[in-house]
Design a protein that fits this description.
With 79 residues, the protein is mainly α. Helices cover 65% and strands 0% of the residues. The protein has helices spanning 8-17, 22-40, 48-63, 73-78. The longest helix has 19 residues, at 22-40.
Length: 79
């Protein structure tokens, strides 16, 4: 799911549809960071455990109907 061509919009759709959990997506991203970090030099610090815990919290929030990432058309048109 977290391949190099995945956009944030596609990730959001996958999360909302239940095709992927925030934890699974986070783990995929962290794995990719781990394999590419040295070559890219893009990260000083990666807080792996904190990211996983935040993803678990996001999954629980989504399961209870709290979708903090959904944006209206009005907001996305400004980006």
């Amino acid at each position: 799911m977290a391949d190099a061509s995945l956009t944030i919009e596609a990730a959001g759709r996958a999360l909302r549809s239940g095709a992927v959990s925030a934890e699974a997506l986070t783990l995929k991203c962290l794995d990719r960071i781990g394999t590419r970090s040295q070559a890219l030099g893009a990260f000083i610090t990666v807080l792996r455990e904190e990211a996983i815990e935040q993803a678990r919290l996001a999954d629980r929030a989504m399961a209870s109907g709290d979708d903090r990432g959904e944006r209206s058309e009005e907001h996305t048109s400004e980006l």
